[in-house]
Amino acid sequence: VRRSKETGQAEAYDTRALDRARARFAMETALRRAVEAEQLQLHYQPIHDLATGRIVAFEALARWTDENGSEIAPADFISVAEESGLIVPLGRWVLDRALRTLAAWDARAGAPLDVQMAVNISPIQLQRDRVPPLVAETLAAHGLAGNRLKLELTESALIADPDGSAETLQALKAAGVTIAMDDFGTGYSNLAFLQKLPIDTLKIDRSFVTGMMPDRDKIAIVRAVLSLATALGMATVAEGIESGAVSQTLSALGCTYGQGYHFARPLSAEQAYQLLVAPSN
Ligand code: C2E
Ligand code: MG
Ligand code: MG
Ligand code: MG
Question: What region holds the EAL domain (predicted)?
Fold first, then answer.
């Protein structure tokens, strides 16, 4: 912090920095309470087979409404959770709640549904927590087979510790869990490294998808990611599909799966279940 008494500007800078630090600390305290009291929620966004429209998975997305009734976006509270270490209990809660919901849907349908649950795992949790045994215990607690779960990881999670990540992913694969690389195209995209990891799916970041047409550069990037995925034997999911035209173009380019507001926004567990068992699915 600069401590100049000379100009008002410098003092205003100090005050703003201090305000930001206070606001962040207040958010951390409120988030800690919310995690402890299990006051977060999960919403579920469907992932569709682009060729048939069938729902193949739901992505579980955390939601937080604070004590004043304000909704805070994951983009804001996940980073606070990561910096404070709260991401570990938060991530454990998300995993448990998402699998509990999937097991409840199966029970309601009277048989295991042909659908996966996709759960985001923070790089911090991957480094600090023992994720494979945690996942195995949580699956067992809800009576679910490993292949019902897909974990979404970002590249940064893996690049931070290549050997450790390879080992972690192998252990998860051995339990039948599938692995998706999230937000692909925004990170380092270290291809040699990617090939060494047991990744099943590439998720194309929505920054290349949403405004894809008529942006020739974005289309070129999407094409490149799709051919890379095919060469490596991976499936592809496009996120951020907001129109039928984008969905059709992606499908024509060979993208297998997609999610986005064109299909559905993230839904409550009840809405998601109704969509899943609707005759049109
Ligand atoms: P993500 O994993 O890439 O999730 C996709 C995000 O795109 C979600 O934002 C979703 O609501 C949004 N989205 C989906 N379709 C569309 C669309 O058509 N248009 C637009 N504009 N947006 C769309 P959300 O829920 O705000 O989450 C943001 C990010 O926060 C996630 O990005 C993920 O990185 C993180 N996050 C959310 N929940 C969790 C969680 O439980 N654990 C961890 N570690 N991270 C989470
Ligand atoms: Mg994700
Ligand atoms: Mg994503
Ligand atoms: Mg994203």
Answer: 24-280
